Amino acid sequence: MSYKLTLRTLTLVSTLILALSLIPTLRRLTLLTHHIAPTMTYTREQQIALLAVQRAAILTKAVYKTSAKGTLSKSDASPVTVGDFGAQALIISALKHNFPDDEIVAEEEASDLRSNTALRDQIWAHVQETRLQDEDAEKELGGPIPSVERMVDVIDMGGSKGGASGRIWTIDPIDGTKGFLRGGQYAVCLALLVDGQVKVGVLGCPNLPVDDTARLEASIGQDQTDEGKGVLFSAIEGQGALSRPLTDGPLADGKKIAMRGVTDIAKAIFCESVEAGHSSHGDQAAIAKKLGITNASVRMDSQAKYGSIARGAGDLYLRLPVSQTYQEKIWDHAAGVVIVNEAGGKVTDVAGKPLDFSKGRTLADNKGVVAAPKDVHEQVLAAVKDVLGVKA
Ligand SMILES: Nc1ncnc2c1ncn2[C@@H]1O[C@H](COP(=O)(O)OS(=O)(=O)O)[C@@H](OP(=O)(O)O)[C@H]1O
Ligand SMILES: [Mg+2]
Ligand SMILES: [Mg+2]
Ligand SMILES: [Mg+2]
User: Fold this and answer.
1) Which residues of this UniProt protein bind Mg(2+) (predicted)?
2) C-alpha–C-alpha distance, residues 170 and 330, integer Å
């Protein structure tokens, strides 16, 4: 009896000692898994985002070819079209199918469509018609939206207030709507933020050359043929930036892109908005002059500017504030910033702060944008501060 008791006590004590000795190993293991978590690959998110942007871009091209683009003027006097609403519906539907718990910050909302049923039906006709040729890919996106009512509800699912925590997608269904209407540059934009950091970005640019080596050309409108045009840019944080042709068929493999090495800043090509109301052409010209740049600026609409400098077709993108009160929207920059960063660039505001996507639907803590290859960013920023008189 006492022998048995002693044996049991001994077993208990040795188990306890063993358990205690394992604690440091377990702690190390927990720390290790903690370290592994942030290096998530986001490959699936990128794949869905590429397909969703591809499908939405197909819709926008079809809308461009119709004479009735259903343009409305929003409360800030900016335009929105059948293309913007339709692209937003298709992208949100794909995201909800694949990532139902994620939040969405999208540019458009559907209140006008609840009263304007003619416009609603025009959008519905395009949304119903738009399918990826690749049936498996179409299935991956959840297939068609089942009814017009559901389409209107889906458009309204992009009202998240954004912020610093969790997974938040941000959508600009057509960035550069004015460019789109003119037959100039526009971009279908989608990015994933995790805890306020951009992890994945995709830009679909139907009117940019497929050829990554084509020199940047001003493209404010007209003369459009689809020949040789259409590019999809993408990036995952820490994994580089890619481009591939934007077609109606299966996705091609992505090719790595990189910014051009600028050895002489005076030879840099810089691009800016078409609309003088969106960024100050005067200040931008003064900065270019300070840097000794004699090439004329290349004016183009939308985040096609970020994609173009990321693949070295241009070098600098300056967006200098015209108003003290305007706050840049996160959907106008998120995808472009991760693509430029991953291609070897650096993007800050005019004070040199990184763009902070954790502040809600707008970049409330930033003013303007200075995007340049890493090596020359400091030099460009110094000229920006000089011209604007921003304190270092
Ligand atoms: N006042 C002001 N200041 C700065 N930015 C503004 C302003 N007003 C609008 N917007 C946003 O500009 C987006 C268009 O992008 P760009 O300026 O690059 O293109 S453009 O050349 O001016 O068309 C445009 O995006 P879309 O509405 O998606 O086209 C707007 O979100
Ligand atoms: Mg708009
Ligand atoms: Mg926009
Ligand atoms: Mg837009």
Assistant:
1) 107, 172, 174-175, 332
2) 7
Distance CA 220, CA 211 (A): 19
Q: Return the best residue to mutate from 188, 326, 332 for the ligand 1 pocket (most ligand atoms within 8 A of CB).
A: 332
Distance CA 20, CA 35 (A): 24
Per-residue pLDDT tens digits for 193-232: 999 999 999 999 999 999 999 888 776 666 567 889 999 9
Distance from the CA of 7 to the center of ligand 2, in angstroms?
A: 78
Query: Which ipTM did the prediction report?
Result: 0.95
Residue nearest to atom 20 of ligand 1 (CA): 301
- 265-388, what's its fold? D-Maltodextrin-Binding Protein; domain 2 (3.40.190)
Which CATH entry fits the domain spanning 43-257: 3.40.640.10, 3.30.540.10, 3.30.930.10, 3.10.20.30?
3.30.540.10
Q: Is 309 annotated as a binding residue?
A: no
386 belongs to the catalytic site: no
Atom 29 of ligand 1, residue of closest alpha carbon? 176
The span from the CA of 184 to the CA of 301, in Å, is 7
